[in-house]
TrEMBL record:
Biological source species: Larimichthys crocea (Large yellow croaker)
Protein name per Swiss-Prot or TrEMBL: Uncharacterized protein
Length: 177
């Protein structure tokens, strides 16, 4: 007769990890009667080391910083993400739905003040002639100017800021033929 008593680890019953399992032993004499286990040179059980894998949940990174607003003027969205650090195994809690690069996103609306940043263009440069026809005394050339994104204040544009803050669709030309 054999029966499993359970798994015992230093006095505590655990559901996973390293431990020991015990199997009860029964000792019979020549007449097939149950007798004390000491007569069979046994303690009454077999002790065996065992490992039951513990479940591990899906592990994601901390949230990234919020992105800039998708629109420099008006309503847009901001995004932040987490990425997969470790897949679940042994029955651990699954991950939320991830995209093709193993990330999950949070998207919130945002609103940018349309008058906060403006494009400011400097005057056009002198013509730089690139192709001259000496016979007709004329040619082709290019004129350029610097265009900057500026913080707009009550007193007008005050300091240069990163270009992404201005609306790219409103950016004046920086060169012309």
């Amino acid at each position: 007769m054999e029966g499993q008593l359970g798994m015992k680890v230093q006095g505590d019953i655990k559901e996973c990890g390293q431990g020991y399992r015990y199997q009860a032993m029964v000792c019979y004499d020549q007449d097939n009667r149950i007798v004390e286990t000491s007569r069979c040179n046994s303690h009454g059980y077999i002790e065996e080391a065992c490992i039951i894998p513990c479940p591990s949940d899906c592990k994601l990174s901390e949230w990234s910083n919020w992105s800039r607003c998708s629109k420099s003027c008006g309503s847009g969205v901001k995004v932040r993400s987490k990425w997969l650090r470790e897949k679940p195994y042994n029955g651990g809690r699954p991950c939320p739905k991830l995209d093709h690069v193993n990330q999950v996103y949070e998207v919130v609306p945002c609103l940018s003040d349309c008058g906060q940043y403006v494009w400011v263009a400097e005057p056009w440069s002198v013509w730089k002639v690139s192709n001259v026809d000496l016979k007709d005394n004329c040619g082709e050339g290019v004129q350029t100017r610097k265009v900057r994104c500026m913080l707009n204040t009550i007193d007008g544009p005050s300091e240069q800021v990163e270009d992404y803050l201005c609306d790219p669709e409103e950016m004046p030309l920086g060169a012309r033929n």
